[in-house]
Design a protein that fits this description.
heterodimer; A: 5 helices; globular; B: 69% helix
Chain lengths: 119, 160
């Protein structure tokens, strides 16, 4: 696989990881006393949290391997692609309403990341 | 609403967290004892960046791995550096703060906000390693900051 593909895959997996974590956290229900112990117990027993960990480890490994042969200035703007992906996934899976202002804000951030990476 | 009040009462009497008096309505039932998501998010960003900087400093301080060393040997070599371990620990704490923030707010709002890490990295690099910030990079940082302000405003206009 080409290093550029590895970087892209890593960015996409990082986004998927965040969706898994959010889903895992959504399923954690906490009431009343002894919250911390219960939170830890339910986090550890939640499959989606483990899926997040797996995606995170694989994505980080791919990122490190890809970065050995790709410039950081090329790789970083691709990270902002992840913001768009995550927003789309959040619309689909969590019924989040992403308004026009929010898309505009995400585009502005993408532009800023491209500027930083090119400097 | 009943559950909301019950949780708030339990929390404010049992866990004297600084921000537990904030209304639980916008933050989801059952998470009233967590710090407000903005606080948790900023703490996470600072910790993750500090963790990265410490890991980087630790990696620069040790000799490169011997060529032909196995993955286990390489990891043991890297893991023997104190700064690397400290950095990893702080990074882990930052991840917990990130979870605390993510549990309370929308993913499409929070994930793009992690671009704050670029700003923090540039700031700390200039401060600690005396790296110069080019005009183009300064512009990029300003544009990212503008985007973040727009993002948080997009949250304010919307009732959760």
């Amino acid at each position: 696989m080409s290093p550029k593909f590895l970087i892209l895959l890593s960015v996409l997996l990082s986004g998927v990881a965040q969706v898994c974590l959010k889903q895992g956290l959504n399923r954690v229900r906490v009431r009343g006393r002894g919250q911390w112990r219960r939170i830890c117990a339910s986090l550890v027993s939640e499959g989606f949290v483990w899926l997040w960990g797996l995606c995170f480890v694989v994505a980080t490994s791919l990122w490190l391997i890809g970065l050995q042969s790709v410039d950081l200035s090329y790789a970083y703007p691709l990270v902002s692609l992840g913001y768009v992906l995550v927003s789309v996934l959040a619309m689909i899976f969590f019924k989040e309403k992403v308004h026009r202002e929010r898309w505009l804000a995400i585009l502005v951030i993408c532009a800023g990341v491209v500027l930083i990476a090119g400097s | 609403m009943e559950i909301d009040d019950q949780v708030t009462e339990t929390v404010s009497t049992r866990l004297p967290y600084a921000f537990s008096s904030v209304s639980t309505r916008s933050r989801g039932v059952g998470f009233a004892f967590l710090p407000h998501w903005k606080i948790a998010f900023v703490a996470a960003a600072v910790m993750v960046v500090c963790g990265h900087l410490l890991i980087k400093a630790g990696l620069s301080a040790i000799a490169p791995s011997v060529a032909g060393a196995s993955i286990g040997e390489r990891l043991a070599h890297i893991g023997s550096q104190q700064f690397v371990l400290l950095g990893l620990g702080i990074y882990g704490l930052g991840t917990l703060c990130w979870m605390a923030a993510l549990a309370q707010t929308e993913l499409s709002l929070l994930y793009p906000l992690t671009s704050m890490n670029y700003i923090l990295i540039a700031f700390f690099s200039a401060l600690l390693f005396h790296e110069s910030i080019s005009p183009r990079r300064a512009t990029g940082i300003a544009v990212v900051a503008l985007g973040m302000v727009l993002l948080t405003r997009s949250q304010r206009t919307k009732a959760i």
